[in-house]
Specification:
- By secondary structure, the chain is an alpha/beta fold.
- The chain has a domain at 75-269: 3-Layer(aba) Sandwich (Rossmann fold).
- It has eleven helices and five strands, in the order ααβαβααβααβαααβα.
- A five-stranded parallel beta sheet has the order 2-3-1-4-5, sandwiched between helices.
- α3 (93-101) crosses α11 (255-269).
- It is globular and about 75 Å long.
């Protein structure tokens, strides 16, 4: 049978199917398009593949160079910078802070991670023990958890009264506006992690001895209050996510992407220039002259085990 006759039979069958469908009230079938359909866009909830290590390390190295430029600019201009990191346990705050600070001058960039308040601090004005850590000119202060403990862990775990929480909601926006009016650059990050990823990270900490210190009794207790923490976070945002001091949410299920995204965003928040002093050449070493070093065998060396 020739190709023309085959094509004719196919067209006849198609017309017959179309008439039957039309008679039954269904739409007639249409021929397939001549060109392939465009690829479908994945739904927003679909996760992209995790960032590979090689790409991550290359991008991180570039961003860390820019962080050094930023810190030099902060010192040069006498700026005062406060960066707040908040989020659920195991959300990746500490890892991001480590990557931010590991290339910076620790004399001008401090990380504040306060323990639970002492009996004396419990009698102070709530913000008092945080205010004393605010930066002077040329300094960057990073809060690994901050005064927002009151709206989160303290509220959920019952370490404060509801009246104290409401007073915090009344006072906090005013305090932050006051800091901004005084010239402080205040940036707030919330690290968001899914329950599945948080569970995976908790299990990893459980199996890794070097990470056991990250599993505090409070972390274990918090596992039973996931919904309560979500409600507390929603209330906190409702009162403190204001134009002068907004919250910036970091999708932290992929640690590598979260770190890069957060650092990149931080660099965009403070306009800076490269004012790193360039040293053309090292000065000559001083001549030893008559100095004679004492015998090496009189010194106590660390054993060469490796």
């Amino acid at each position: 049978m020739s190709d023309e006759r085959k094509n004719g039979k196919r067209k006849a069958k198609t017309k017959t199917k179309a008439k039957k469908a039309e008679a039954a009230g269904a739409p007639a079938p249409v021929d397939a398009p001549a060109v392939p359909a465009p690829p479908t866009v994945p739904p927003p909830t679909e996760r992209v593949a995790k960032l590979d290590k090689k790409t991550y390390e290359a991008e991180l190295a570039k961003l860390q160079v820019e962080l050094v430029k930023l810190q030099t600019w902060v010192q040069h201009q006498g700026l005062r910078v406060v960066v707040i990191f908040e989020g659920r346990d195991a959300a990746g705050k500490g890892g991001t802070i480590k990557r931010i600070t590991e290339s910076l001058n620790p004399r001008a960039c401090r990380v504040v991670a306060l323990p639970k308040p002492t009996e004396r601090e419990r009698t102070q004005w709530y913000f008092q023990r945080y205010v004393e850590h605010l930066p002077a000119a040329g300094e960057i202060v990073i809060f690994d958890r901050s005064w927002y403990n009151r709206a989160g862990v303290e509220r959920v775990m019952g370490f404060c009264t509801e009246e104290e929480v409401q007073e915090f909601f009344r006072s906090c926006p005013g305090l932050e506006r006051m800091l901004v009016r005084a010239g402080v650059i205040l940036i707030k990050y919330w690290f968001s992690v899914s329950p599945e990823e948080q569970e995976r990270r908790f299990q990893d900490r459980l199996q890794n001895v070097t990470k056991h210190w990250k599993l505090s009794p409070m972390d274990l207790e918090a596992r039973q209050h996931w919904v309560a923490y979500s409600q507390a976070k929603d209330a906190m945002f409702a009162f403190t996510d204001v134009k002068t001091c907004p919250w910036y949410v970091v999708d932290a299920d992929d640690k590598r992407r979260a770190r890069l995204n957060c650092i990149h965003h931080l660099l965009t928040m403070i306009p800076y220039q490269d004012v790193i002093p360039r040293v053309a050449a090292l000065p000559p070493r001083e001549d030893a002259g008559a100095y004679v070093r004492p015998p090496i065998n009189e010194q106590t060396f660390v054993p060469a085990r490796y």
